[in-house]
Amino acid sequence: MNRLPNLITGFRLVLALFTFAALSGAALLSERLPEDVQFALERWAFVAYVVAALTDFVDGWLARRLHAESVWGAILDPIADKVLVCGVILGLLSLGPNAAVAIPAALILFREFTVSALREVAAGKGVTLPVTLLAKWKTTLQLVALGAELLTACWAAFGLPDDPSILGTATLVAHGLLWIAALATLVTGAQYWEQARKALSAGDGA
């Protein structure tokens, strides 16, 4: 049972890769695939993403409940989160150009890679950057916003009402959520940058 949280985290990583592969496959092979196959790939990508996003809340809770926190879990969890977020962003962008998605998505990717590099540099100096409360909420915002964007992008695949007013409203909500997630992502990035600056400056002065 103590290995269950890490297995769930690993499963999230597999689902993240599947989500990206299904979305990019549906986009790249759109001219060769029958429409029903393309729609099936989009539906499975969405289902895989939702399940993967839910596991993000389950594995941590289980690890605490079972007292099964581990070094591997601490390593795998953020990796799986970032692969999921980056995978669905790249998958969404492969479906077609959309500035309303591309700009906040680029900001999110920029922050994620920057903070990862910052953590690596800080770790080399013996400095750890604790996760902030806003950073935890940031991940939730990202997952919800990207799920909304994925749903609107795969709207036709689910046979949802082909009403421009309904789809238009859903799209505006999804874009709004993504911009909120991007802003929260940038704020947490600035927080980590300030933490690292202070910690590294204190270390240099010691």
List keywords for this structure.
206 residues, mainly alpha, Four Helix Bundle (Hemerythrin (Met), subunit A), 82% helix, globular
Please, could you describe this protein's structure?
- The protein has 206 residues and is an all-alpha fold.
- The chain has helices at 4-28, 35-65, 71-94, 99-124, 133-153, 164-205.
- The longest helix is centred in the last third of the chain and has 42 residues, at 164-205.
- The radius of gyration is 19 Å and the shape is globular.
- The relative contact order is 0.13.
**Uncertain ranges:** none
Order of helices and strands: HHHHHH
Q: Report the CATH architecture.
A: Up-down Bundle
Report the portion of residues in β strands. Answer: under 5%
Which secondary structure elements does this structure contain, and how are they paired or packed?
Elements lengths: L3 H25 L6 H31 L5 H24 L4 H26 L8 H21 L10 H42 L1
Helix pairs in contact: 1-2, 1-3, 2-3, 2-5, 3-4, 3-5, 4-6, 5-6
Quick overview of this protein structure:
The protein is an all-alpha fold and 206 residues long. It is built from six helices and no strands.
